[in-house]
Amino acid sequence: MNDYQLLPDWPMLPEKLILGNPTGMGVDRSQHIFIFHRADRKWSSDIPLPETCISSKTILMLDRESGKILNSWGDDLFIMPHGLTVDLDNNIWVTDVGLHQVFKFSHEGKLLMKFGDAKVSGSDSTHFFHPTDVAIANDGSFYVSDGYGNSRIMKFSSAGEYLFEWGKKGDQEGEFNLPHAIDLDDEGNVYVADRENSRVQVFTPTGKFINQWADESFGKINSVGYDKAGKGFVAVDCTSTGSEEEHYFSDLLLFDSSGTFLKKKDRDHFKKEGKDCWYHNVVVDDQGSIYITDIIGNKIKKFVHPLIATIIFIFINTYLFGQIPANSLFSTQDPLHIQLSISTKDIRQSKRDSTYLSNMLYYGNVSGKLDSIKAGLKGRGNFRFKACYFAPLWIKIKKNNARGTVFEGNQKLKIILPCNSPESYNALILKEYLCYKLYEEITPYAFHTRLADIKLTVRDKRNKIYKLKGILLEDIDEVATRFHAKSLSQVFLSPSVINDTTAVRFELFQYMISNTDWSLVHQHNIKLIVQDKTKIIPLIYDFDMSGLVDAPYAVVSQVDGESLDVKSVTDRLYRGYCRSPETMQFVRQEYISKKEKLLALSDQLEGQLADKEIKDIKNYLGDFFSILQDDRLFKTFVLNKCRAIH
User: Measured at the alpha carbon of residue 592, what is the angle toward residues 591 and 594, in degrees to the nearest 5?
Assistant: First the structure.
């Protein structure tokens, strides 16, 4: 279990699904993963529970390998979802803390049994008080952790008859302070996540105390799960910083078969991302893969053995998303060290002549030493080509020359260079690079990029060496290959042919970074790929004119002959086209859900950008989210500014 690692890009959920707090989770006999979530509903101890049921489908069945939804149900059934368990007959059991009830459904969602009276709490043998979880024994009898209000474990027969209970509120053996989750091992022993006591308690099937697992490093234990494959146990906790600006972090806890604590895993991962998390539930499949729900990030995490991770990663990218794995050039974000020698005069002539200049490109190989490769160079770009000292470049590498190097699979690349030589222009490159990374968080349909540390020798009147930051940008044909698509030549394009969700996603991004320098109709700073001959997908690039970058040469765009009503590139103006209210609200909520992760991305530039610049970036993006999170402002600055599609 010590070798488990987080599987990226799992699950692959539909674009229009808003995953609410994923509180419950289970695995059926076919190893499908069931998720119980709250859609758009929140539970706060400060306000009464709602009276109405959630209208969305709250139970999702996911494919284990791809994470694709295979089935969904549970609409108009639950007030406040909590626990979910799948029994040996593939029945689905859930608890609802709002209804104070426990339910048993068929695999397809037909109600088979329910226990407790709706919206009636109690402490007798026929009522519950915010029940949290269910565990089903091999003989069909079941246990309920009755949880927030009663601090007890109840056992029922397979027919639902009350048998016995144990526990009361306290911190002694056999007492509980919020029994939050429950699971059984092969012998039928009962494992209880005693949340507020920060421990796991172990009991016999009859409720006799066996042991407890506690450690001063544990936070509040939210869930415990039995690993049948590895004959060990997993748990998840949550710890608060307790500071004035309170934050939450969670750990995955690993135990052997005897309950000996082995290690923690994953908190560093979240600290690096710079966001809070609250792990709520954990389950294990028959391969030993571990699944975790996070109710702050509203995400589902999958941890697998490295070998399994590699197999699944290839499967997901190739078959589900239509995307083959990225090549090695873009598989890491460590800056690539490059050395080039050019003549600016020859580069500018090469653009006019459409010819590539023969050159040697020196780069840092895997051993950290410089290697070389033959490459052709050519000037590119429009505004920057005319106005800047360093023109953007095309790099072309023959397939045979690239084979076996970091450039394999990239016969053509763009290099974005600073406009001029002062150090401040390197900072602008870093900001533009951040724009690309922000967009990669919004959609997979984005150019892959990588930073480069470039030692550039300019051979003009005399040799002069510059140390520059640069951005390596994937070629459009390589993007098309990744998605089993074809690049589309520039055409006059009506905005109506682009999928509404895809369009709003990139148009809202341009508004976020305050970029007016684009045109969908004329494909200005937009490339197109087409999938299945009909699905046209835009890919956006060149963000140096954006307000987030705020280059000294940046001007408000006059693309499409428009005279835009803004004086500065830092003044946001929404230039997206009018789409349905449902689409606008869906993408709006999608952005809001990614707020913390997007804000945290600038932290990756610590040590390269000044602290003040990183703070300014966060404040600038924060202003965007202030608009998104305010209904009046969103209507004023986005909905009322959209352009009609003619």
Answer: 65
Q: What is the CA radius of gyration of the chain?
A: 28
DSSP 483: T
pLDDT, position 316: 46
Rounded Cα distance, 44 and 354, in Å:
63
Range in 57-66, 232-241, 386-395, 409-418 the model is least confident about: 386-395
What are the φ/ψ torsions at residue 409 (nearest 5 degrees)?
A: 90, 0
Number of H helices, E strands in the chain: 12, 34
pLDDT value of residue 1: 43
- Token digits of residue 11: 């699950």
Spans of all domains in the chain: 5-320, 329-474, 485-646
Report the chain's terminal Cα–Cα distance, integer Å. 58
Confidence of residue 533 (pLDDT cuts 50, 70, 90): confident
- The DSSP bridge partners found for residue 113 are 104
Give the pLDDT of residue 270.
43
For 410-447, give one letter per residue: b (16+ CB within 10 A) or e.
bbebbbbbbbebeeebbbbbbbbbbbbbbbeebbebbb
What is d(CA 118, CA 98) in angstroms, rounded to the nearest whole number? 8
Q: Which residue has the higher pLDDT, 568 or 385?
A: 568
Q: The tokens 């006019």 sit on which residue?
A: 352
Give the span between the Cα atoms of 178 and 170, in whole angstroms. 9
Q: What are 118-164's pLDDT values in tens digits?
A: 999 999 999 999 999 999 998 899 999 998 999 999 999 999 999 99
Query: Mean pLDDT over all residues of the chain?
Result: 88
Rounded mean pLDDT, 550-561:
81
* DSSP at 188: -
Res 386: pLDDT: 76
pLDDT band at 488 (very low <50, low <70, confident <90, very high): confident
H/E stretch holding 401 reads helix 399-402
**Cα 165 versus chain centre, distance:** 41
Biggest CA-to-CA distance, the chain: 94
- Comparison of pLDDT for 431 and 332, the residue scoring more: 431
Query: Using omega within 30 degrees of 0 as the cis cutoff, is the peptide bond preceding 11 cis?
Result: yes
Q: What is the pLDDT of residues 348-357, one digit of tens each?
A: 787 666 788 8
Phi and psi based region of residue 116 (left: phi greater than 0; alpha: psi -120 to 50; beta: remaining)? left
CA distances from 203 to 157, 170, 509 (A): 18, 16, 53
- Judge whether residue 104 has pLDDT over 80: yes
Sheet containing 486-488: order of strands:
486-488, 526-531, 535-540
Q: Token pair of 31, please?
A: 């190893």
317 has pLDDT over 60:
no
CA-CA-CA-CA dihedral for 175, 179, 183, 189, to nearest 10: 10
Q: What is the pLDDT of residue 324?
A: 47
Whether the CB-CB separation of 146 and 154 falls below 8 Å is answered with yes
Residue written as token pair 């610590």: 606
Where residue 274 falls (left for φ over 0; alpha for ψ -120 to 50; beta otherwise) is left
- DSSP assignments along 541-580, one per residue: ---TTSTTT--TT-----GGG---S-SSTTS----PBP--
Confidence of residue 437 (pLDDT cuts 50, 70, 90): very high
- Sign, CA dihedral 536-332-439-305, equals positive
What class does CATH assign to 5-320? mainly beta
547 contacts: CB under 8 Å, gap ≥ 6: 513, 514, 515, 568, 569, 570, 571, 572, 620
